[in-house]
Amino acid sequence: MIRVLLADDQPLVRAGLSALLNAEEDVDVVGVAADGLEALDLAAELVPDVACLDIRMPGMDGIDVAARICGPGASPAVPVLILTTFDIDDYVFRALEAGVSGFLLKDSDPEEILRAIRHVAAGHGTLDRTLTRRVVAEYVQRRRLRPVTAARGIDMLTARERDILLLLAQGMSNEQIAGTLVVEVATVKSHLARLLPKLGVRSRLQAAVWAYQNRVVTVDDTAR
Question: What's an example Gene Ontology biological process for this entry (predicted)?
Answer without folding.
Answer: regulation of DNA-templated transcription
